[in-house]
Amino acid sequence: MSLPSWVAGTPEINSSLARGTGRQALPIGDGAVNSQLAILAGMAAYIRLQLPNTPAVFEQNQSPSSIGLMVDDAIRAALIRYFKANRDGLSDAAVQRVFDLFSTNDYVVHPFDYIELEHLLRYKQSLFDVKFRRWASQGDNEDIAESDITLDNWTEFAPAERSNYISTLHSVDPEAARALLLDALPDETASVRGKLIQAIESSITISDKVFLEGLLNDRAKSIKDRAATMLSYLPGTEQNNERFKEAVSRLSLKKTKLTRKNKLMVEQPKGYKNHSYKLIDWYGTTFGGIDPIAVAAKLELKPAEFCNLIEQPYLACQCVIQLAKQNELELLKPLAMQNSDVVLAWLFNDDEIELYSLSLEVKNLFWAMATKTISGKSVSHWVQMLESLYLKLNTPIPKDISLYVVSDKKILAAISQSFEESEKYDKHLLERLVSILDACSYPQLKNITKDAPPFVSTYANQLIDLLSLLDNQNSTDQTNEN
Amino acid sequence: MSVTIDRIEAVAPDQASLNAANKLLKRAKWPMLEQNADGTILWGQCQGSGSTPYSMAVDVNDLGAKCSCPSRKFPCKHSIALMWWFAENAQEFTTGETPDWVSQWLSRRRGSSTDATTDANKPKVSASNAKNQEPVKKLTPDEIKKKEERAARQKEKNREAREGAIAQGLDELDLWISDQLAAGFADFEIRAHEQGATLVKRLVDAKAPGLAGRVEGIIADYYGTEYLERSNFLTEQLGMLHLLANAYRRQSELTEGLQADVRAAIGWTVEREQILSNKKLKQVSGEWLVTGLKEEAQTDRMLRIETWLLRTDSKEAESAVLIDFVPLSSGAGRSSIYIPGQLLKATLIYYPSSTMMRALLVDSKPVDSESRGALPSHGLSADEAIKHFLDKRVTNPWLEQWPLLMSNVSIRRTADDQLWAVGGKDEQHALPVENSASVRASVLLGLQDLTLYGLFNGKTLQPMAASTPLGAWWGTSI
What we know:
The complex is a heterodimer of chains A (482) and B (478).
Chain A: H1 11-19, H2 33-48, E1 69-70, H3 73-85, H4 92-104, E2 107-108, H5 114-117, H6 130-136, H7 159-172, H8 174-184, H9 190-198, H10 209-215, H11 221-232, H12 238-249, E3 251-255, E4 262-266, H13 277-287, H14 292-298, H15 303-309, H16 313-325, H17 329-338, H18 340-349, H19 360-370, H20 379-393, H21 399-405, H22 409-417, H23 429-436, H24 442-449, H25 454-481
Parallel strand pairs in A: 1-2
Antiparallel strand pairs in A: 3-4
Helix pairs in contact in A: 3-25, 4-23, 4-25, 7-8, 7-9, 9-11, 10-11, 11-12, 13-16, 14-15, 16-17, 17-19, 18-20, 20-23, 23-25, 24-25
Chain B: H1 5-11, H2 15-23, E1 32-35, E2 41-46, E3 54-59, E4 64-67, H3 77-88, E5 94-95, H4 100-108, H5 141-183, H6 188-205, H7 209-224, H8 230-249, H9 256-266, H10 272-277, E6 283-297, E7 302-311, E8 319-327, E9 343-350, E10 359-366, H11 382-395, E11 402-413, E12 419-423, E13 429-432, H12 438-441, E14 450-456, E15 461-468, E16 471-474
Helix pairs in contact in B: 2-3, 5-6, 5-8, 6-7, 7-8, 8-9
């Protein structure tokens, strides 16, 4: 059956409907109200069966596949359960622990879970691939190319993403990173140049010396200064020698009156109060990155002798970090153990320090130092310091220490206290411990949660379940490789 | 069926309620934690700030809850806490005989539990006076019969009066539409609000709340319609209103199903019991997948919650929607008790309609609370699905939306940032994705050979679920 043409509306009908049939009668029908209503209903029924027009052209889209493997359904469910439910009490350590296991397994967040986990972007931008970040910005970065950032297209990305890229590239292929920077820097503003150079600061080695020396001729003073500072941390450079001389000039040996033993004296700037941030900064600027073994030689002391003479806590902290970086385990161990409290507190208060690249032996030594004693400390505060150390080391507490922690009476008592509903106790204590302990402690932690009220056990169990799934996957992968 | 934190989160009205419930999880606050013999019903008492503890009960099957506290949130923090206790420490619950107030509450609920007693002569007991039950005088069979006859007569009288009022309301409606035609659509904006509000009041007075809601909706949507589309919008909407009025006047000429559609559109409701007891209605037992949830705040300050189901053990793409209403003032957010991807073994009974979709749950139990289901693979091609929709709309011109299960489609984007569900050879069949669903659906861009389940309203598609090369995708937050 063919439809009358008026149902689709003619210019005359449309004009009459717009102006009003009182002013311009419909060109069809007898003009009676019922006739007008019937025409309207006929047109409505016609419109009701019209479909939207198909566009002639669609944009080309790439699939949301990623640089890593997507997690399986069990991990996805556990991930969303934990991070969605636990939004309020989420700790940085828990986020880092989970996503470190992601990195170890070469996993990426499943694209379908982006919307559920969007809030995690503020914690760990780098954990998500560029598509997720672009998706989360919901069109704010429309100029970003569809593909992932690469050597060929990196200049098209925003400065923050380029800094991330350069930082990652420099840690795996410093030469390629330097080549990109040399090519790009001349065309950038001082501010962007500064950000890109800062991106390699934590991973510079002696191979960056020529590149950094080239920056000493930069047109901006801020860049020259930054390059000089970075050079001063590279052994053998003119800038490092100057800092070394300055550091040594601040140290002297004095014989004690009675025993005639050596005492190491530090000439601190005048007017700086003890334990002030200014003083702590001064120790960092003066002694940070200075080789303690070379200092000992300059003072005509054996390295162990020099370390043994260090009494000033902030000098000890700087030497501990430098010896750790130099992997000098024998010198490091006594110095770190002797100054465990102050080093731990100093690390807790300094967010700038990165200890990711230390050897596993040194990291384990740091854990032994941090867990040497908890007497006299609030367990909750102590766990907070351990979390901070975990964030810097990026390695969980080793097995033996983990087992010791979960059987320590003082810690167990603090966990039991947290089962009481009171502002005095930290209800996330158990969960926070889960995030930093080795997987071998999970059975014991699970056992502890059996006696815990739901406000403690729910999130702790969810985290244990999630970490166990990721950890099993990690172990399975390692077994398969072997 | 186990009570899990996931399920509790799904029924909690908001995060604040969960936090508040979490704070109640202290054993000393709970003088009573009990369950029935098979663990399907829980009840308990929680000590609040007053001297009398609040009493609450939870039906484990669907996490329906009842509490004596005055909270306007549903479920309240006490009920959530009771569920939480059970999820985490079921061993704390002792087994007891279901109290009367719990049984009576259960008997009034949908899909009442096997524990529910339906003895009409039993005195009614509320949660708040659970401890102070008074015996009520029993009626003789004769007295009951007389009472029922009186009620039936009164009901018929009310029905006749309402039919008369509706007839007047329909005339008012036609008059209003013809006024709009005479005055012209170009000026509709100027008079829509005031004149529309007057008409809405008259239709409410005429006991045609469905019609009143439609007029309100048209006026609200008119302002949200693009300027160039407004004339077409009014032609369609006012024309369909007139068609509805005429169809109501000529009900006897309509099929039984369409009669039901027209009466429902005007505002007649069918009691749940009438549906359950009508043996002629279509009843389907099978395995159903919860494909998605849709919530809409209505102009009558109620939140309409649609739970969409797709049968997975049949070759027919059989769908159903469960519709619930909760007051907006209850602060309910995600109020459905179901989670997308959940599988149910259920018997559904469909409301009468020419295009049956709304249904009631007769009984249900989850297939496996741990694993989530996936869309069946037997979707229609995009053109077949669109034809199917048009057929349904020809059958029922007032049909607002219809679920489509389409295979071999992809999500594409046009230069104006509009997403489309595209299928067919040379991509000649494309349905625009509803704007509100675009953010979630954007992760499907570029994936090929999707099986997509979505609600199509003739203009836009709201994707609800998809089977993709990357696994199952759900359009509703889990």
